[in-house]
Amino acid sequence: MAKESEESFESEVGKLNELSIFDHSETRRKFIKQVAGTSVAIAIGPNLLKSAPLDQIDSTGAAEAAGESINVHLKINGKAYALDIDPRVSLLEALRERLQLTGSKKGCDHGQCGACTVLINGRRVNSCLTLAVMHESDEITTIEGLANGKELHPMQAAFVQQDGFQCGYCTPGQICSAIALLKENHANSDHEIREWMSGNICRCGAYAGILAAIKEAKTKVRA
Ligand code: FES
Ligand code: FES
């Protein structure tokens, strides 16, 4: 039984990997192709694919379009990046289209679904509603930064154990939001969890599993 349970868990972790919950470029590309291929293909232009860690970038890097880009330094999942970027680019666009951190999903792009939720200085933020240039000195954490190597964050593990997802499109945002929810001490009853997670929509209706996962993680999540 224990072996079956382990195999089942590994299988579910494999699904999470395919949903970009781990930082694995091959599976991430596969998921983008399968789920969001058309819109991503339209959205990603050749100019938008330039990015590099700070230690690899030319500090005098050419602007994308003369007079329209500015240089910004972002710290994401503990790693520093420098970008020449249009000041109107949202943090979500910068993550997905400049840095290929595609775990954060674009749902509505209007602050209504929570699919794009990331942690900024430990607080949950809809990355579609904030500009990348506003976060020079901030600590940004995306779903790719939660696991410790192959060890899932307790909230990720709880989502697997409790079937907290179906298609998985909302899951990165749900997990980031749930981690902040615990820090906010807003998980003291089922009603409170539902209320404070109401900004994260799940089109698959996996709410029962999400609730169970948050309750399980509450006893295990690291500070
Ligand atoms: Fe940001 Fe929906 S994509 S809230
Ligand atoms: Fe499909 Fe939430 S699991 S949208």
Question: Could you characterize what this model shows?
Answer:
The protein is α+β, with helices and mostly antiparallel strands. The protein is globular. It has a 6-stranded mixed sheet, with helices on both faces. Helices cover 37% and strands 12% of the residues. It binds FE2/S2 (inorganic) cluster (2 copies).
List all distinct small molecules, including ions and cofactors, that are bound in this structure: FE2/S2 (inorganic) cluster
Total strand segments: 6
| Name given to the CATH homologous superfamily of the largest domain | Beta-grasp domain
Architecture (CATH level 2) name of the largest domain: Roll
- Could you please say which CATH topology of the largest domain applies here? Ubiquitin-like (UB roll)
Report the average pLDDT across residues: 81
In whole angstroms, the N-to-C terminal distance is 32 Å
Secondary-structure-derived class:
alpha+beta
* Estimated radius of gyration: 18 Å
- Tally of helical segments: 8
SSE topology:
Elements: H1 2-18, H2 25-35, H3 37-43, E1 52-53, E2 70-76, E3 79-85, H4 91-98, E4 117-120, E5 123-126, E6 139-141, H5 154-161, H6 171-183, H7 190-196, H8 207-218
Parallel strand pairs: 2-6
Antiparallel strand pairs: 1-3, 2-3, 4-5, 4-6
Helix pairs in contact: 5-8
The chain binds FE2/S2 (inorganic) cluster (2 copies).
One FE2/S2 (inorganic) cluster is lined by residues 106-109, 111-116, 126, 128.
